[in-house]
Known about the structure:
The chain is an alpha/beta fold. The protein has a single domain (6-122, 139-220), classed as Dipeptide transport protein (Rossmann fold, 3-Layer(aba) Sandwich). It contains five helices and eleven strands, in the order βαβββββαβαββαββα. Strands 3-2-1-4-7-8-9 form a seven-stranded mixed β-sheet, sandwiched between helices. The protein has a four-stranded antiparallel β-sheet with strand order 6-5-10-11, covered by helices on one side. Helix 1 runs parallel beside helix 4. The longest helix is centred in the N-terminal third of the chain and has 21 residues, at 32-52. The protein is globular.
Amino acid sequence: MKKPIKVMIGVDFEGASGVVVFDEIYAGHVHFDRNCKELTYEVNAAIEGAMEAGATEFIVRDGHGGNINVDPTLLNPIADLGRGRKPMCAETMVYGIDESYDALMFIGAHAKACDPRGVLSHTMGLNVLDLTINGVSLSEQAYNGLWAAQFEVPVVLVSGDDVTCTASKEEFGENVETAETKVAICRTAAYNHSPKRVYDTIKKSAYNAIKNLDKMKPYDKIIGPKYDMVLKLKGDNEGNVVTVEYSSTNLLDLLTKFWSYI
C-alpha cells in the first residue's frame, strides 16, 4: 500500500496570470471576481497534477490580503480551504503546517521587495524594502519556507512570473519545480501567458514535484539556533529608510517582531 502524501498549497495573488496592478486583486475592482476564478483554476491545476503523481490530501491556504480570494465553489473538492486571517499570526501564509505534511507548494507567488522588475514585488507589506535573516534576503516564499523547514517540509513548487521562478531556483535549489505565468516587463507590466497554457504548465510542474519528492529538501539557507533580523522600511516621502535590527533564538518570536512592523 502506497504512503499517503499530504500537500499544503500556499496561495498568493500577485503571481497569477493576467494580474499586473494591485487594485485588481482586491474586492471592489471590476476584474476582482474574474481574477479570483483565474487564481482558483491555477490552484486546481496544481492539485490535479499532484493527484496524478500520487498526492492524496490537500490543504489550500489562502494567503493574500483578507485571505478570501480562492473561490470555494470552483475549488477541486478533494481540497480543504483555509480562509480568513488570524490576528498577529506570523506564519499566516502557511498557518497550520506541521510534521504531517510532505510538501509545500506556492501558487500566485511574486518577487521580493528589493527586486524592482518583479511584477508587484514586495515582502509581506508595501512599507518593507528588504528583510534579511542571518544575512539572507528573503522573499515571502522563503519566509514561509523557513517556517515550514522546522517541520521538515520542503518547498516543491512555485508559480509566478519569470523573476520569481528564477529566484526560486536560487532559494530552494535546482530541484524545485517552477511554473511561469508571465514575463515581467517592470513592476506594473508583464507579458501574460494564456491561462490555458499556465494551467498545463502548473499541472505538469506539480506532477513532477510529487514524483521527485525524494529529491526535495527543506529550505536550508538559514541556519539557527540564533536568528538575526535586519528589516529595512520606508521612512517617509523623502526616501528615508528606517532600519530595525532584532535577534532571537526563537523563530516565532523573530517573525512576530517582523510582523509587528508591517
